[in-house]
Amino acid sequence: MINEGKYPILGVNVHAVDYEFAVAKIVSAAKKKHPCSVSALAVHGVMTGFLDPVHARRLNGMDLIVPDGQPVRWALWWLHQKKLPDRVYGPNLTLRVAQAFAERGLSIYLYGSKPETLSRFAQNLKQSFPGLIIAGMEPSKFRRLTEGERIELADRIQASGANAVFLGLGCPRQEVWAYEYRNLLNIPILAVGAAFDFHAGTLPQAPQVLQNLGLEWLYRLVQEPKRLWRRYVLLNPLYVWNVFLQYVGLRKFIPVRPDGSEKIESYG
């Protein structure tokens, strides 16, 4: 089990941990029904914080940010000499947590995505982990919720008795949601995004060789060029350049925690 602490990458704190530690932390919080907001950040996720200081504060207010992308894992090595044996890939973390919950009789609530994706995701989880209890699920409304709707959603999740939420709203909305609902729900919230589509079978995952080389972004760009070209063509070079500036000491990025002024976005 590896837990080397958290370190800033472009002002966003990322935890140098492995799968075993991440799963253990989530399971512990789920058993005790303690809040634990979790996100697996690739380059795009880090850059959402780099470009938006309010969102950076939200990210730094979360309990666990794991290095989802290889370039984020590499940055922990280059900048802070933390050489992890592997990244903590959100879709894989999702399955490991589901397995751990199934073995312990813990339950999950699925929130986000479209109804058909959600249904297939739940079906595939149950097929892979027959002991897994899905306490409830509901798709995204793809709009902001009113304050009343927000409280009603939190009440529904609490009433289900779920020990954790798997959240699929896409980056950065899911991280905002995980931050905003953390103290409303007081259970682990896992912002796992594309895991919903991957494990529902509606979106293919990149071949393992491309994942290992840090080129998963290229595979996804080919799959969804209209939606993703700005994310990868513009943000990837900006990430590399600023990591270089941080590495050589020409720019300092100081992580800032939430100060209470963060506006409630209420994505749903």
Labels describing this entry:
12 helices, about 270 residues, alpha/beta, 6-stranded parallel beta sheet, single chain, about 50% helix
Task: Report the order of strands and helices.
Answer: EEHEHHEHHEHEHEHEHHHH
Number of strands: 8
Number of helices: 12
In the predicted model, the low-confidence regions spanning at least 5 consecutive residues are none
Whole-Å distance between the termini?
35 Å
Shape: globular
Radius of gyration: 18 Å
Structural class: alpha/beta
> What is the spatial order of strands in the main beta sheet?
4-3-8-7-5-6
Strand content: 15-25%
Overall mean pLDDT: 95
Largest sheet: 6 strands, parallel
* Fraction in helix: 40-55%
Report on this structure.
The chain is 52% helix and 16% strand. The protein has a six-stranded parallel β-sheet with strand order 4-3-8-7-5-6. Strands 1-2 form a two-stranded antiparallel sheet. Helix 2 crosses helix 3 and helix 2 crosses helix 12. The protein is globular and about 50 Å long.
Summarize the structure.
This protein has 268 residues and is of the alpha/beta class. The chain has a six-stranded parallel sheet. The mean pLDDT is 95.
Write the layout of secondary structure elements.
Elements: E1 3-9, E2 12-17, H1 19-32, E3 36-41, H2 43-51, H3 53-60, E4 64-67, H4 70-80, H5 90-104, E5 107-112, H6 115-128, E6 133-138, H7 147-159, E7 164-168, H8 173-185, E8 188-191, H9 195-200, H10 208-212, H11 216-223, H12 225-248
Parallel strand pairs: 3-4, 3-8, 5-6, 5-7, 7-8
Antiparallel strand pairs: 1-2
Helix pairs in contact: 1-5, 2-3, 2-12, 11-12
